[in-house]
Amino acid sequence: HPEFARLLTAFGSLFRLRCEHGNALQCLSKSREIQTQAIGENHPDYGWTLHEISRVFYDQNQFEEAQEYNSKACHIFSAAGLSTSHIHYKSAIELADLLSIKV
Asked: How many CB atoms lie within 10 A of CB 44?
């Protein structure tokens, strides 16, 4: 169910903030699996999950993986017509800027 996937993404974000990267990726991966079936891979919620995965990788200095997931998230947000001032899209753009320095 999409709402359960949203909760998993939120838990993944919390685990990331607590530097529990394994738990974060576990929640985010499960959320992504549910979202793929429930809402598809072009939905902004799926993009947000990808962005959160990219942040986990960024926090672990895995910049190429972070860039890969964040780029997909930005593409989804753009294709969905989100404004660059939308909180999710803006966060992804800011991470893309940071990654452009690291990669």
From this structure: 19
Counting residues of the chain whose pLDDT is more than 70, the rounded percentage is: 99
Scan for tokens 């959160």, then name that residue.
Answer: 52
Closest among 78, 70, 79 to 99, alpha carbons compared: 70
Averaged pLDDT of the chain = 97
Report pTM: 0.95
Contacts of residue 20, defined as CB under 8 A and 6 or more positions apart, other chains included, come to none
Structural element, H or E, at residue 16:
helix 2-17
CA 86 to chain centre: 14
Q: Which of 44, 5, 47 is nearest to 28 (CA)?
A: 5
Q: How far apart are CA 64 and CA 49, in angstroms?
A: 17
Residue ranges in 18-86 assigned as alpha helix (H)? 21-38, 44-59, 63-79
